[in-house]
Amino acid sequence: MSLASAAGSVHVRAPGKINVYLGVGGRHDDGYHALATVFQAVSLYEDVIARPADDFSITVSGVEDDGSVPLDDRNLAMRAAKLLATATEHTGGVALEVRKSVPVAGGMGGGSADAAAALVACDALWGTGLSPARLHDLAARLGADVPFALHGGTAVGTGRGDQLNPALARGRFDWLLVTSEQGLSTPVVYERLDLLREEEGALADDPPLSLDVPIPVLQALRTGDPRQLADALHNDLQAAALHERPDLGDTIDLGIAAGALHGIVSGSGPTVALLCPDPETAQDVQTRLRDEGLDPLHVHGPVPGARIIG
Ligand code: C5P
Fold first, then answer.
1. Residue whose CA lies nearest to ligand 1 atom number 10
2. Where is ATP annotated to bind (predicted)?
3. Domains in the chain, ordered, with CATH?
């Protein structure tokens, strides 16, 4: 039995993410799109506490009690715990407590962070001791973004976003996150992208089923220079997210007018991430945007992936 389980509970923290680059290719037969993306884990975290129990149960705090986060087998943390139990033939359950800080349906991988945290927490609680490679395999079965929430830092994701390679990133990047009360559904945004591409006649030239991250994005991360990264920010899902939520374009414009270097829709949105040159400017821009009625969060990246903190 591990020390953590002897203590009666395991507390794991996992980060949300921004896609500093997101290229979307064609749709595979399984419905998933080919991706080439660069994830960066940022200092906005989900906390998962796992306690011993005979059955499986979950509570969630830090979010409206409006059904937006399911408390049954549709919950990704619950699915993660059950998948680990099945894979390791562990008998017995777990009582999961999820404390959310990452916006729900915000394009920042909050649900994926919950799943990654639950995997690590149950592995420690149950003493199943899986290798990082096996944890990664289970994570990939839960969702395309879950492996990254395990690893954290800055990483290139290809395939469906689940084939990860670390990317060299120097220094610290300061972001302001403008969240929305109303979330956006990831499948809806991907479907919108397909429709927009059909309308544009892009099907004459089918989107590729394998793609790479452009070299200038990786170079910008390596220099640690926010100005270079600002020039390289790109998200193929942005047009689709703006189609659903045109106001996000105004948010990006406001952020740039207030002093951010550049802004981007994070993942499938609707969270907008504004890149700032340094922490002081980020605070300045935050104050100016508050005067405009927005309430941005100041975070930084990269930060580590899911880890046990108690
Ligand atoms: O893997 P995850 O559950 O995060 O994906 C949610 C949805 O996003 C998928 O059901 C799919 O509609 C879309 N998606 C996609 N291609 C990807 C990743 C996600 O079409 N590579």
1. 187
2. 103-113
3. 3-168 (3.30.230.10), 173-301 (3.30.70.890)
